[in-house]
Write a structure and sequence with these properties.
disordered N terminus, two-stranded antiparallel ribbon, 5 helices, six-stranded mixed sheet, about 180 residues, single chain
């Protein structure tokens, strides 16, 4: 009996970690929120879909739309076409979308190939939620987007789905 009660502890701990993420994914989108104070974006290094490492600092001087997502998250999947269009439209103005998946490389690669993602996708797996928290995502919601200006400051965040119209409104002030 004692063995059974102790074996449930890891399952309960895992459930406690995943519940906020599961409930956050798919919530109604909130209105975009501009940051009151600018916060310097934390640097990180993650592998891309091909295994090469990339750091946020390599996009210094550019406007970066940093999107935390997973292929299994419906609102994450829904916003990808808008990000593809934004990448096409604004790349020549020093803008890039950087996707950070909290899923496996294989699952992200399959989704990227299917949808034609044209921007860098970095693979963070479970570490992605911790990185997102450094960008203001206190509850670990997916999707989560942070807009970083040319000076490396977070100037806008959005929890849940970000539409193209909302993204372009946020970009207007920093491009």
């Amino acid at each position: 009996m004692r063995h059974d009660s102790y074996s449930a502890i890891p399952r309960i701990a895992l459930l406690a970690l995943l519940l906020p993420l599961l409930f956050a994914c798919g919530e109604q989108s909130e209105a975009p929120k501009a940051q009151q104070d600018t916060t310097a974006a934390a640097n990180f290094t993650l592998p891309d879909l091909e295994g090469g490492n990339h750091s946020l600092s390599q996009w210094k001087g550019q406007v970066v739309l940093l999107n935390f997502w997973a292929p299994w998250c419906p609102p994450c999947r829904k916003e990808v076409p808008a990000f593809i269009a934004l990448q096409e439209k604004y790349a020549d103005q020093g803008f890039t979308v950087v996707g950070i998946t909290v899923d496996t490389r294989k699952n992200a690669q399959t989704f990227a190939d299917t949808t034609g993602i044209n921007y860098p996708v970095l693979v963070a797996e479970e570490q992605g939620i911790e990185i997102a928290k450094q960008y203001g995502n206190k509850v670990g919601a997916l999707p989560y987007t942070a807009l970083i200006d040319r000076q490396g400051n977070i100037v806008f965040t959005q929890r849940n789905e970000l539409t193209r119209k909302e993204a372009e409104k946020a970009l207007a002030g920093v491009l």
